[in-house]
Design a protein that fits this description.
Length: 209
């Protein structure tokens, strides 16, 4: 099923290991991220927040921040990325958000949530991707997956993956979040002894008719 797989790994020394894996299968892209902490994603002094509006559930909060970037890209850039543009990748993100069209919001899909959570629960302590075996969902025509570690706050996970530090020019994590190709998402997480750097998250995306 995944014949012709091509893998490209990028290593970022200061933040730990980050990698981008591209599968040579139509409409499928997988990205992964692993960092040692939240230094790049911690709120800057004076940075605006909208925490009062954010839903409490993990998947609901992840959906909120994905859709904030997708449906209000200029506002998201001004509030959350403008203070971070000292780095080339953050500057590139800022420019992209300021010029991109508005995307349709993602929707949560219970099967994607169950798949991501089930994979993490059944592979304790393992760092790596699943085989994205959620193709059984009726109407699926595109699939993607991102993983992150060391960052717990949903907003900061999304910002980390959007900046995609060190992974130019492909920016696989960013593409997953901002892509017009996918329509649904679902996330899972583990923390504590079962997780890299104390917190590990998996996000699965799919285009579903």
């Amino acid at each position: 099923m995944f014949a012709g797989r091509r893998i490209l790994f990028g290593v970022v020394s200061r933040l730990g290991l980050m990698c981008l894996m591209l599968l040579a299968v139509p409409s499928v892209m997988v990205a992964c991220s692993k960092t040692e902490g939240e230094e790049e994603n911690a709120p800057e002094q004076g940075e605006e927040t909208v925490e009062g509006e954010v839903p409490q559930g993990f998947n609901e909060a992840m959906l909120y921040w994905h859709n904030y970037a997708r449906t209000k890209p200029k506002e998201f850039a001004q509030k959350f990325i403008k203070t971070r543009i000292a780095g080339a990748d953050a500057k590139n993100l800022y420019q992209e958000l300021m010029s991109m069209p508005v995307r349709q919001p993602y929707q949560l899909h219970p099967e994607l949530i169950a798949y991501a959570q089930g994979y993490l629960d059944s592979h304790p302590g393992k760092w790596g991707h699943s085989n994205m075996g959620f193709g059984y969902i009726p109407g699926v025509w595109g699939r993607a997956e991102s993983i992150s570690a060391g960052v717990k706050n949903p907003r900061d996970i999304v910002i980390q993956l959007l900046i995609d530090k060190g992974l130019a020019p492909r920016y696989g994590h960013r593409r997953n979040i901002l892509s017009a190709e996918y329509t649904h998402m679902g996330a899972g997480f583990v923390e504590g002894g079962k997780a890299y750097y104390g917190f590990q998250c998996m996000i699965d995306y799919a285009g579903i008719k």
